[in-house]
């Protein structure tokens, strides 16, 4: 093992600082008045010294797991062109951790445990738990309407709970904004998107609470509601409520207009950089950068019993959409796989620009799989099944399910809907290993329409652009 770290630290930020920030919030807002209690280590590692944790790794079964994971990593995952970091842990103890590739294609800085990645839709887990933290501290109620925090919002009958479980029926801002934004050279903010919705009232997809539809608008609105209910900026709230208390020193909310931070990875496709688009100023549904070790701290903090009451976690991990039969479902900010024996996989994956992320949690035995990549590679998602089998979770999928579910067949920059993910083929296959059953999770499609990138084109270049698009389309079909 490369190293063994204590997973979580005690509080580094005092309640006085937190309360002072709250007192400076705008008049009339509900200010957060208390910081969360200190975060302890997990129940499994609280009383273990580094030597005792090292002894756990020396157990024959864990040594075997490390060897099998190492073979999979070197013989299969690296062959997909993997560029990023991977960590596998059980009961808070890291069994396997490796890093490969570069943070950006220019400087060639190698990826390490300090490298931070755009977490894309995995950011939704922080937004969701931020809302639930405010609920626990009586700053909001899940049955509150959106209008309680966003006056003038034109869609009636939608509650905070419906935003959390993707049952609002709202249109996806990634698709309707491109038809309404006049100056694509500017980064949109949450308020910009809300103003567009108030002014133009894009059509809803269905009435509220009539069915599940994965939708980034929901979590954009939740990011704004966090600000309204807490009286703090979204980034400040997460920093003081989660990042600092848990010891997530490398984690932050992205600001596309701020200078790039050290070890902040660049999104890539092949060997070229993927530029930001005007959607990168929107937060709540994406926009958090984190490192592999920090994500393990986030995972373990949710087991500690110090951030949330158990009944709050039970609410977050409860399935809310039963229109389609099967084990897959969605809770409050978390994808779920619910098995007949009562076992659960709680997870959220992400995809934004060239970033592909996996954050999978087997909550019954606290097994965790974290794979973060900044170079477009769908092999990251396919890696979950064989890794799960190695860890003893080969029965964590329905019979007949395909481990490649959730891989897009459309062009990488084309809009992809949740419905598309049920019938897609492999773009970057992972070599198969023999297994009876597999654990399968699909990634969250958090894409943007290519045609709406913030690029100013003169009239004289339109023909060239059209020809280039035709050429690109032909190439993709091949």
Automatic annotation (TrEMBL):
> Which residue ranges does the record assign to the Beta-lactamase-related domain?
86-360
- Key word Hydrolase present: yes
> Chief localization class?
membrane
Which InterPro entries does this entry report, sorted A to Z?
AmpC-like, Beta-lactam-related, Beta-lactam/transpept-like
Q: Where is this region: Disordered?
A: 397-478
UniProt subcellular location: Membrane
State any single GO MF term.
hydrolase activity
- What keywords were assigned to this record? Hydrolase, Membrane
Basic residues composition bias: which ranges?
A: 433-478
Q: Name one Pfam family in it.
A: Beta-lactamase
Gene Ontology terms: cellular component: membrane
Q: Which PANTHER family match?
A: D-ALANYL-D-ALANINE-CARBOXYPEPTIDASE/ENDOPEPTIDASE AMPH, PENICILLIN-BINDING PROTEIN 4
Name of the protein = Serine hydrolase
Lineage at the top is: Bacteria, Pseudomonadati, Bacteroidota, Chitinophagia, Chitinophagales
């Amino acid at each position: 093992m490369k190293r063994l770290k204590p997973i979580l630290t005690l509080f580094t930020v005092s309640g006085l600082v937190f309360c002072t920030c709250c007192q400076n919030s705008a008049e009339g807002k509900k200010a957060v008045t208390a910081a969360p209690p200190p975060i302890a280590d997990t129940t499994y590692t609280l009383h273990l010294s580094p030597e005792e944790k090292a002894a756990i790794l020396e157990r024959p079964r864990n040594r075997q797991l490390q060897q099998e994971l190492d073979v999979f990593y070197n013989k299969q995952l690296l062959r997909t062109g993997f560029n990023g970091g991977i960590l596998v842990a059980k009961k808070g103890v890291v069994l396997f951790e490796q890093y490969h590739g570069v943070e950006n294609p220019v400087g060639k800085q190698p990826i390490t445990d300090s490298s931070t990645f755009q977490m894309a839709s995995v950011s939704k887990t922080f937004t969701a738990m931020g809302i639930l933290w405010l609920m626990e501290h009586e700053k909001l109620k899940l049955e509150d309407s959106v209008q309680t925090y966003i006056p003038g919002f034109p869609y009636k009958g939608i509650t905070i709970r419906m935003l959390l479980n993707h049952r609002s029926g709202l249109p996806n801002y990634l698709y309707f904004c491109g038809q309404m934004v006049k100056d694509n050279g500017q980064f949109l903010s949450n308020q910009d998107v809300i103003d567009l919705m108030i002014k133009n009232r894009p059509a809803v997809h269905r009435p509220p609470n009539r069915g599940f539809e994965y939708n980034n608008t929901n979590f954009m609105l939740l990011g704004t509601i966090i600000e309204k209910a807490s009286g703090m900026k979204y980034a400040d709230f997460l920093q003081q409520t989660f990042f600092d208390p848990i010891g997530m020193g490398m984690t932050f909310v992205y600001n596309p207009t701020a200078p790039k931070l050290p070890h902040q990875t660049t999104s890539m496709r092949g060997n070229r950089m993927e530029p930001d688009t005007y959607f990168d100023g929107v937060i709540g549904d994406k926009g958090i950068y984190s490192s592999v070790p920090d994500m393990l701290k986030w995972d373990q903090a949710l087991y500690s019993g110090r951030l949330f009451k158990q009944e709050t976690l039970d609410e977050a991990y409860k399935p809310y959409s039963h229109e389609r039969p099967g084990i897959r479902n969605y809770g409050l900010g978390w994808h779920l796989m619910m098995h007949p024996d009562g076992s659960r996989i709680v997870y959220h994956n992400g995809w934004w620009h060239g970033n592909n992320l996996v954050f999978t949690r087997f909550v019954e035995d606290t097994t965790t799989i974290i794979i973060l990549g900044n170079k477009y590679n769908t092999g990251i998602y396919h890696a979950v099944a064989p890794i799960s089998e190695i860890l003893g979770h080969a029965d964590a999928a329905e019979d007949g399910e395909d481990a490649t579910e959730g891989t897009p067949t459309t062009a990488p920059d084309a809009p992809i809907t949740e419905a598309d993910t049920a019938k897609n083929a492999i773009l970057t296959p992972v070599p198969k290993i023999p297994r009876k059953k597999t654990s399968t999770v699909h990634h969250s499609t958090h894409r943007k329409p290519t045609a709406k990138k913030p690029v100013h084109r003169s009239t004289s270049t339109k023909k060239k652009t059209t020809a280039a698009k035709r050429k690109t389309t032909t190439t993709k079909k091949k």
